């Protein structure tokens, strides 16, 4: 299940995001979206968790929490 994480601090790394979501289950992919010109974070990422129940718990627990100095928004990506 793919999860969208928004409002990340520009200093947050892909590794930081992966570690945060691993607390709730297995993470098979984590992609921090970078600006093509500057190489810096655009402030959002996609996380893939294969277990839907683990993903639901991660979304519920992490949405609107402080992470890296920013209040993040977490929801299902896509449809």
TrEMBL record:
<dbReference type="GO" id="GO:0003723">
    <property type="term" value="F:RNA binding"/>
</dbReference>
<protein>
    <submittedName>
        <fullName>RNA-binding protein</fullName>
    </submittedName>
</protein>
<dbReference type="InterPro" id="IPR000504">
    <property type="entry name" value="RRM_dom"/>
</dbReference>
<dbReference type="InterPro" id="IPR035979">
    <property type="entry name" value="RBD_domain_sf"/>
</dbReference>
<dbReference type="InterPro" id="IPR012677">
    <property type="entry name" value="Nucleotide-bd_a/b_plait_sf"/>
</dbReference>
<keyword id="KW-0694">RNA-binding</keyword>
<dbReference type="Pfam" id="PF00076">
    <property type="entry name" value="RRM_1"/>
</dbReference>
<feature type="domain" description="RRM">
    <location>
        <begin position="1"/>
        <end position="79"/>
    </location>
</feature>
<dbReference type="InterPro" id="IPR052462">
    <property type="entry name" value="SLIRP/GR-RBP-like"/>
</dbReference>
């Amino acid at each position: 299940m793919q999860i969208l994480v928004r409002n990340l601090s520009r200093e947050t790394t892909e590794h930081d995001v992966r570690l945060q979501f691993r607390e709730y289950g297995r993470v098979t992919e984590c992609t921090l979206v970078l600006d093509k010109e500057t190489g810096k974070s655009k402030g959002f990422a996609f996380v893939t968790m294969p277990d839907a129940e683990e993903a639901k718990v991660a979304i519920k627990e992490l949405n609107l929490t402080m992470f890296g100095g920013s209040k993040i928004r977490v929801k299902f990506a896509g449809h």
